[in-house]
Amino acid sequence: MTDQQHTSTNWTDDNLMSLQSHILAEERHHPSATGDFSWILSGISLATKTIASKVRRARIEDVIGEAAGGPFGESDGINVQGEQQLKLDIIANEVIKACLGSRANIASLVSEEDEEPTILRSRKEGGRYAVFFDPLDGSSNIDVSVGVGTIFGIVRLPTIPGVRGTDAILHEDAQMAAAGYVLYGSSTVMVLTTGNGVDMFVLDQSIGAFVLVKRKLRVPASRKIYSINEAYASRFSEGVGRYLDWAHANNYSSRYIGSMVSDVHRTLLKGGVFIYPQTHDRPEGKLRLLYEAMPMAMLMEQAGGCAVTGTGRILDVTPNALHQRVPVILGSSEEVAHVQRCIDV
Ligand code: AHG
Ligand code: MN
Ligand code: MN
Q1: 105, 112, 132, 218: which sits with the fewest CB atoms below 10 Å from its CB?
Q2: From first to last of its 345 residues, what are the pLDDT tens digits of the chain?
Q3: From CA 55, how far away is CA 309, in angstroms rounded?
Q4: The pTM is what?
């Protein structure tokens, strides 16, 4: 073999990297993590691979449509958000809890679909993290095969004696240490940060593993795309109205899928700004802080973008309720600045 052939492959960087091996390699940056993340993320990987297969077989297995009343008929199918649960919302929720419940370092689970947190174990029993998740985001789009996803955040809980359960979850010292989403789209894509940049994986069905396809994703600093549900234009604040007038006058394109994971994934890869603002009838907006806004904000900032509520960073908000809603403006740094400038006039 000529020298050229020997150097044609960079064996140290170009090798096939699974999610598992990538996380173990990443943990070198977190001496205190001691395998914690890999243990939790392997549970999230198993859960989302399972959900991916159920989403893709939903029509075949006839689990499209509204939940009659929970997996065991216990609810009327209306969740804590006051929204109609879909069968797949509940199925995805149960799958994630089944996969994470056995991970010995998780203290509690906070789900969009459960009014109260699932408390698994105390700190004395080894519980150090909470996992926040939206088991199936954008689920109203399931029946028309639009991309839906799972959003998750891994939160290191404070070690203050006597602070446990929901108090620990909502405590100002609770720190989101990892975040990500899995998009069940034309391919099953996981986008993940453990605080050292953003990496992207695709589920390779032939080997049943998420494989690394892109390291250190960076969101473009600018892109003339805004993503907002303009059907609510009459209820937006004057500032958001000013921004839309400015964008229309500056040849922006509008892209809105109505599934946060899909809209954020496009924004992350192509740039632009995603906005779910407050409206006169929803002064806090619609999106939930703990398991939609915060994980997406961590990803966006780790990729060099911005994520604000209109009055400050999303990651600076100290939560006061599990299902608290916040306005969301996130994406390319320059595009978020344009929105903020119009709000601040
Ligand atoms: P979920 O399906 O978890 O309830 O989330 C739906 C959210 C989010 O995915 C999307 O950005 C937003 O709802 C769309 O809301 P509108 O239909 O009001 O635009
Ligand atoms: Mn959601
Ligand atoms: Mn959801």
Answers
A1: 218
A2: 455 555 556 666 666 888 988 888 877 776 666 678 888 999 999 999 999 999 998 888 776 777 765 454 545 677 777 777 778 999 999 999 999 999 999 999 999 999 999 999 999 999 999 999 999 999 988 888 899 999 999 999 999 999 999 999 999 999 999 999 999 999 999 999 999 999 999 999 999 999 999 999 999 999 999 999 999 999 999 999 999 999 999 999 999 999 999 999 999 999 999 999 999 999 999 999 999 999 999 999 999 999 999 999 999 999 999 999 999 999 999 999 999 999 998
A3: 31
A4: 0.92
Ligand 1 pocket residues where CB is under 6 Å: 83, 112, 134, 137-140, 229, 258-260, 276, 286
Pocket test for ligand 1, best of 133, 140, 255 (most atoms within 8 A of CB): 140
Domain count, the chain: 2
15 C-alpha to ligand 2 centroid (Å): 35
Q: Is residue 219 part of a domain?
A: no
Strand runs labelled E in the chain: 106-111, 118-119, 129-137, 148-156, 175-184, 188-193, 198-204, 209-214, 225-227, 253-254, 273-276, 306-308, 328-331
Q: Are strands 118-119 and 106-111 parallel, antiparallel or unpaired?
A: antiparallel
The answer to the question of residue 220 being in a domain is no
Structure tokens given for 5: 């052939």
Query: Which atom of ligand 1 is nearest to 258's Cα?
Result: 14
Ligand 1 centre from 326 Cα, in Å?
A: 13
Residue of minimum CA distance from atom 15 in ligand 1: 258
> Two tokens at 166?
């929901």
The residue segments making up the domain with residue 105 are: 3-214
Q: How far apart are alpha carbons 233 and 181 in whole angstroms?
A: 29
Ligand 3 center–CA 292 separation, angstroms: 9
Quick one: 37 and 178 in the same domain?
A: yes
Q: Are residues 67 and 165 in the same domain?
A: yes
Instruction: Look at residues 214, 242, 274 and tell me which one is the last residue of a structural domain.
Output: 214
Percent helix, strand, coil in the chain, to 5, is 35, 25, 40
Ligand 2 centre from 277 Cα, in Å?
Answer: 15
